[in-house]
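Protein Entry — a single chain follows
Next Lines — sequence and tokenised fold
***
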Amino acid sequence: MKKRFVLLSLIIFAMATQWAQAQTPEEKIKQLGLTIPEVGQPIANYVKWKQVGNLLYLAGSGPKVYGKVGADLTVEQGYQAARDTGMEIIAVLKAATGDLSRIKQFVKVLGMVNATPEFTSHPAVINGFSDLMVEVFGEKGKHARSAVGVGSLPNNMAVEIEVIVELEEKKPF
């Protein structure tokens, strides 16, 4: 009887683990209580994304959070701004692919922080984006990354983030 209980427990654990891994990114977003925003129009003469082969290059995106981290904003506020930018990037990815499950992996991220010259915690700010990608996409969301400080960003945005992702091959029907 005890062996059956252990075996049944292992089967249930394996099924639960498999179910958790089988969740789509959209289901994870819903589970986190987040909503994918609408994709806004570019602010100049460029496109939000460009696909080359199986790589999808996203233009820089930023939040509706303004000011310099280290003067107007704390590290925590910068982290939240980067996380908000992550949701905007997810919206662009959804618009570009039609299905977030098509993302095979995040390849490279460039995170720019509008910061004072003496501010040095740029990675802690851009972690807001990176943490969200891993929460939503799991291992596929882990990426190579640069996090740098800049003297200014368009419209005084707190952060701007660029992304390159690899897409799964489209399956022929």
About this structure: The chain has a mean pLDDT of 91.
